[in-house]
């Protein structure tokens, strides 16, 4: 308990953002934002009332009338300014993120930076939101397309990337001429709100960006609101499926990036040291709380002999608060997350997997109340075990044995998820076979977390994604715009009439 709480003083409240103003919610329902390394209460988050959600949407709808007419260059320059402000405030943003989410300060800066890349991408919107023209498709007839904004759009973001994922969403939606209502994770909204402050400072007009907080009721209100035209979601499969089904039935355009079980194949010809480093970083970084974390390594042939060295590599990682120098693995985001991960480790043991490294209850001097689990490794993992079938979302790596690359590919393709995968090898032929035959949306070759830069689009697939278009890159331009096709013919005074034409052809 912090000093303010001991003194009976309420922690500061997180505000709503409505029509360019940060306003106090009138709700009676609140949730604490808690530092996961210390349990200190940092702030209180309001669960917005239905009236507040409606007010945010109505202001966004009103602002759309003028924002959609704003010149594309004016919109782009706002995001040039925003990327500058983010760079200038990088250390502050990372510190906020670490305090409320737990990841290490260097990883927090990486979180902000990957979002910054999308802001830079939004600043180049003039090259992306282009229509097409076919001249003289018939006598004196031209056909062309316009990519026009939809209206009010909304975003629902998760706790694990509270800077990057909001920056995936609102910059691209707003740059394409839409207005936006954002619902950040109620677990760690502070860095998101600071980014919104910077967005207003960069010049986003009142009503164009709005923020409401809350849980299931607010999510459902966003799914149901008739004035919201599109929703972007990143989070769990359970919630994402609910959002997609409910919002789609209400006629909305929806994209949902959801859960994962990402596999990496390790061939025996791989560079051992680089591969072990990559596996440890991708499995245990951010305490495993990444939807693109490597949570399963499929060891092919003689690579199965590398397990002791992988265990030793994992043992070298420092578990501590994200603010401590040299920390590799910070705390899990909440006490509930800690309990869930520890429970899944216990089930893995009970269901017959071999616990090669037990990371439960590490000693972290000075942070005895933190939600810590150290690197944990299981071997002999099989489908049907809870640690394989469920997304653990903790620093737990499952090891699977395979006799060949074909067996390894078939094993991965049998898993319903398709977010990301990787192969470690020095064989170009094996890598090419893998990229051709694997049924997963994002493929890494000696790259453990193959999240593409914003020039491309996030392309998770199968059970990891609902909706056809990704949250950034070229695909998101299509998601946030409506294609309008115009067929035009102009007559001048010298044009001779051709009489009535009752056919469908253009002549």
TrEMBL record:
InterPro entries: Ald_DH/histidinol_DH (IPR016161), Ald_DH_C (IPR016163), Ald_DH_CS_CYS (IPR016160), Ald_DH_N (IPR016162), Aldehyde_DH_dom (IPR015590), MeMal-semiAld_DH (IPR010061). The keyword NAD applies. GO terms for biological process: L-valine catabolic process; thymine catabolic process. It is an enzyme of class 1 (oxidoreductase). Its EC number is 1.2.1.27. Signal peptide: none annotated. Belongs to the aldehyde dehydrogenase family. This is methylmalonate-semialdehyde dehydrogenase (CoA acylating). It comes from Comamonas kerstersii. The lineage of its organism: Bacteria, Pseudomonadati, Pseudomonadota, Betaproteobacteria, Burkholderiales.
């Amino acid at each position: 308990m912090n000093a303010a709480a001991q003194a009976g003083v309420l922690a500061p409240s997180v505000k709503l953002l409505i029509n360019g103003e940060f306003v106090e919610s009138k709700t009676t329902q609140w949730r604490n934002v808690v530092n996961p390394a210390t349990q200190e209460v940092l702030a209180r988050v309001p669960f917005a009332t239905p009236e507040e959600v409606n007010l945010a949407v109505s202001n966004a709808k009103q602002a759309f009338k003028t924002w959609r007419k704003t010149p594309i260059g004016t919109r782009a320059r706002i995001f040039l300014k925003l990327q500058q402000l983010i760079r200038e405030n990088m250390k502050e943003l990372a510190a906020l993120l670490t305090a409320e989410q737990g990841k290490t300060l260097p990883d927090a800066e990486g979180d902000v930076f990957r979002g910054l890349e999308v802001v830079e991408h939004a600043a180049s919107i003039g090259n992306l939101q282009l229509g097409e023209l076919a001249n003289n498709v018939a006598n004196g007839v031209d056909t062309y397309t316009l990519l026009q904004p939809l209206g009010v759009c909304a975003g629902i973001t998760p706790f694990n990337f509270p800077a990057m994922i909001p920056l995936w969403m609102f910059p691209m939606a707003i740059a394409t001429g839409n207005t936006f209502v954002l619902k950040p994770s109620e677990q760690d909204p502070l860095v998101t709100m600071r980014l919104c402050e910077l967005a207003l400072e960069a010049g986003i007009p009142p009503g164009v960006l709005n923020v409401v907080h809350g849980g299931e009721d607010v999510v459902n209100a966003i799914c149901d609101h008739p004035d919201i035209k599109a929703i972007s979601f990143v989070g769990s499969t359970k919630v994402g499926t609910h959002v997609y089904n409910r919002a789609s039935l209400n006629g909305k355009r929806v994209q949902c990036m959801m859960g994962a079980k990402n596999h990496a194949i390790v061939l025996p010809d791989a560079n051992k040291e680089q591969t072990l480093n990559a596996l440890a970083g991708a499995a245990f970084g951010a305490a495993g709380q990444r939807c693109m974390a490597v949570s399963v390594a499929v060891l092919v042939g003689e690579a199965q002999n590398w397990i002791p060295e992988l265990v030793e590599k994992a043992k070298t990682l420092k578990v501590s608060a994200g603010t401590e120098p040299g920390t590799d693995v910070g705390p899990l985001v909440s006490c509930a997350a800690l309990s869930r991960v520890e429970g899944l480790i216990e089930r893995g043991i009970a269901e017959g997997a071999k616990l090669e490294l037990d990371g439960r209850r590490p000693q972290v001097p000075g942070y005895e109340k933190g939600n810590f689990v150290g690197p944990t490794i299981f071997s002999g993992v099989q489908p049907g075990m809870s640690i394989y079938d469920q997304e653990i979302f903790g620093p737990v790596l499952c090891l699977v044995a395979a006799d060949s690359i074909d067996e390894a590919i078939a094993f991965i393709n049998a898993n319903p998820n398709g977010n990301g995968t990787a192969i470690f090898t020095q064989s170009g032929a094996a890598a090419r076979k893998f990229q051709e035959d694997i049924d997963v949306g994002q493929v890494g070759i000696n790259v453990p977390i193959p999240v593409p830069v914003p020039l491309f689009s996030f392309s998770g697939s199968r059970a990891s994604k609902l909706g056809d278009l990704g949250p950034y890159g070229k695909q998101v331009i299509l998601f946030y715009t409506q294609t309008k096709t115009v067929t035009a013919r102009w007559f001048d005074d010298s044009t001779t009439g051709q009489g009535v034409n009752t056919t469908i052809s253009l002549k």
